[in-house]
Input
Amino acid sequence: MTQSSPSVQRFFDRATATISYVVHDGAVAAIIDPVLDYEPKAALISLDSLARLIEYVRRHWLQRQGIMKHAGVLVRTTIGSLLVLAGSCASASELGDLLRGTLEHPSVAARMEETSAAQQELNAASRRYLGSGGLNAGIVRYEDQRFIGALSPATFAAPPFDRTSTRYGVAYSVPIDLFGAIAAARQLARSSLESAQLAERQQTLLKLHDTTSAYVRLQALHQEEAALGAQLERVMTTLNRVRQEVKVQLAAGVDLKLAESEVARIRSDEVRLRGSVDEARAALTEAAGRASDVSNHAIHIPNWPSAADSDQALPLRLARAESAAAQAQADEARRSLLPSIAAVGDYSQFSGTAGVPDMWSVGALITVPINMSANRRTSALDARARAAARRETAIAGELTRQWTALKAAYESGVADIAAVRQEVNARREVVNVQVELQRVGLTSMEDLLKQQRDLVDSESREAQAQARAITAWSAAHVLLGTEASAYIAQLE
Output
């Protein structure tokens, strides 16, 4: 700065009761203590206060005198840091909101209903030990007088006869689970409940994975669109220059044709990308339950989860629960072929002729089932149980391969991001040099366009690597059976 005293412009922020400053000497300005606006109810971050300071700097100083190094660096660093913070928060909040909306997806709600039904079935199976019974009432009118009630020594002296007989009573039966039929039914209900709970978690994680993968894929496609748009701008600049040079015979007509064909190729790629974007947006809308676009700010890639015990992997736990349910169903069918024993009792009261005594009884009831088709059904259920056990074994072997493949995809994606970023920077420098070389005729138009295409490809690969790493991470958590809340928290 000059030797004169600097001027200080103060800006008071009512929301935070703080003061920001713009210090300048008539040529160079610095912003001190800018405010980042935050709306707590909507959880939104804005840069309105900072924009007011920047506009003051531009209008009074930097626009007239130019942005000098130190002030320019300070201003750009301040803006850049706050934009990164705002972009990160917006992106994380945006994705988090979409993931929470995914928890209300109809397929997840259907699984929740199935879990609730399985819980009710377990409660019903447990109540079978309490037995069952009922109240009864009936009235009968005969063509002539009939004996009313039960024959007993007390009724011999004055047998009750009447044409109308009315009977009220209650009967109850309590099972004696000697052969374990009820226990087998409860075990089946417990296995079915566990299977339903695991299937609910799996469906929830699958839809969260669908949302995440569609989100990052849409981000990657938008970055590809931006790279392609920059390429189109470069090629159009080159095309316009070549057209002028052809007019004055400083360039060959073949260069013009190459540039025009490159523009046509980019236009074709734009159409292809628009289709892919529409497809990814539709997938995101279906998974999240609402239409949404995505932030351009890259999502932080979470660390790869530690290797868990393969016995606790969600697909294996689900297969194990389904196998147990199939085995329990076969066991219940076998035990239903055995005799059943129950303690029974009933009480009846008759009305009609006076003096009809009440009747009650208690006893035991043994029932031997005779059902020829039940044996066949039991054999079929045994076969299903064996098939479920084999599926469990097959899944156990498949898990290691899936985990290894996902980890390789994640690691390659992370490695590609770092490598491709360096490649992008290098290719940008090469393209800038090639533009100047082609301008003076030291390289061909074909070589220039090839270098520009390579730059676009590398920019696209960087976006795809980001999406690949996050998608692999997400799929790994589907295998692990991570709680939905923990899954969302790691991405936020």
In short: The first strand starts at residue 7 and ends at 13.
